[in-house]
């Protein structure tokens, strides 16, 4: 009986393990990061192309690997989302940044941020 109980507990534990979605590269069409796919880990730099909107649903967690960045050349809409390091113990400087707009050609981007804890810097 104890063996069956232990096996059942392990199966339940495996079934409730949090999923993780790895992302990187270029987003070239409107996309949404959903709560069902959270947390998302940016494994390589991620670019949101001009004219494209990235929507991040409420309570989604977006984690960045070391030195990775999010470049938003289009639009980003994020309400009550968390952007943080993927490190086991997050610390300042663990990941790159979120760049809004293209610093090199003067293009602009749109961002909608609510409930932000820290600051956001833009380069337009």
Q: Any descriptors?
A:
124 residues; mainly beta; six-stranded parallel sheet; four-stranded parallel sheet
Structure description:
This protein is mostly beta strands and 124 residues long. It has one domain. It is 11% helix and 38% strand. The chain is built from 1 helix and 10 strands; from the N terminus they run αββββββββββ. The chain is globular. The model is unreliable at 5-16 and 113-119 (pLDDT under 50).
Shape: globular
Radius of gyration, in Å, reads 18 Å
Give the H and E element order: HEEEEEEEEEE
Structural class: mainly beta
Number of domains: 1
Q: Strand tally, please?
A: 10
The major β-sheet equals:
6 strands, parallel
Name the average pLDDT: 77
> What's the helical proportion of residues?
10-25%
What count of helical segments does DSSP give?
1
Which residue ranges are poorly predicted, with pLDDT under 50 across at least 5 consecutive positions?
A: 5-16, 113-119
Beta-strand portion reads 35-45%
- Report the span from N to C terminus: 66 Å
Element layout with pairings:
Layout: H1 2-15, E1 21-27, E2 31-33, E3 40-48, E4 53-56, E5 61-64, E6 70-72, E7 75-79, E8 82-85, E9 98-100, E10 110-114
Parallel strand pairs: 1-3, 2-4, 3-5, 3-6, 4-7, 5-8, 6-9, 7-10
């Amino acid at each position: 009986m104890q063996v069956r109980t232990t096996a059942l507990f392990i199966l339940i534990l495996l079934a409730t393990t949090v999923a993780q979605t790895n992302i990187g590269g270029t987003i070239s069409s409107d996309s949404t990061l959903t709560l069902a796919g959270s947390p998302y880990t940016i494994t390589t730099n991620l670019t949101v192309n001009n004219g494209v909107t990235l929507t991040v649903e409420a309570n989604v967690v977006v984690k960045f690997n070391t030195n990775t960045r999010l470049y938003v050349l289009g639009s980003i809409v994020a309400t009550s989302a968390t952007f943080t390091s993927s490190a086991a113990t997050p610390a300042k400087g663990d990941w790159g940044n979120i760049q809004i707009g293209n610093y090199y050609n003067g293009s602009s981007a749109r961002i909608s941020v609510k409930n932000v804890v820290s600051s956001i810097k833009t380069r337009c």
